[in-house]
Amino acid sequence: MITAVIRASRDVEALAATLSVLIPAVAGGVVGHAVVIDEADDAAVARLADETGASYVRAKNGEAWSRGVAEARGDWVILLEAGEMPDQQWTPNVERHLMTAAATPALMPLRGVAAALCEWGAISLRSRAVRAGLLAPKAQILSGRLARAPRRLAVRRRRAPV
């Protein structure tokens, strides 16, 4: 089971867009839980997390990913920023990755030339930093550094036009 960990950015509409894309993955049994991380203590973000059944975590700068991942119920997590939406066929790609490369983290790159080049560079340099778009075992993310550089998934994520 995968837990989606979403870092909110004071934009409730962007958060709602990300959560709405996860609904089919929940229905399909791929995502079992969501955690919303709020660094701004926004009541609207807390309310949306509650209404969607996601856990709500208040975090300070620098500890957001680790606080959210610590609340994850699944052994694997996918990290997303509010407003990011995986492509429509992302769940079969993620399932295939988990079946064929069980211990290897993966990265779902952003659409767009600049973002894709930045993430491609990070993978090429074998960066093991924790970042949005990452699909990895919970224990590796909690350690603060991945055991190995992530593989690039065939699907992408995009920013919602909010």
Give the helices and strands, then pairings:
Layout: E1 2-7, H1 12-27, E2 31-38, H2 43-52, E3 55-58, H3 64-70, E4 76-81, E5 84-86, H4 90-100, E6 106-107, H5 113-124, E7 134-137, H6 138-142, E8 151-152, E9 157-159
Helix pairs in contact: 1-2
What would you say this structure looks like, in words?
The protein is α/β, with parallel strands linked by helices. It contains six helices and nine strands, in the order E-H-E-H-E-H-E-E-H-E-H-E-H-E-E. Strands 3-2-1-4-7-6-8 form a seven-stranded mixed sheet, with helices on both faces. A two-stranded antiparallel sheet has the order 5-9. The mean pLDDT is 86.
Mean pLDDT level? 86
N to C succession of SSEs: EHEHEHEEHEHEHEE
The SS-based structural class is alpha/beta
C-alpha-based Rg, rounded: 14 Å
List unreliable stretches of 5+ residues. Answer: none
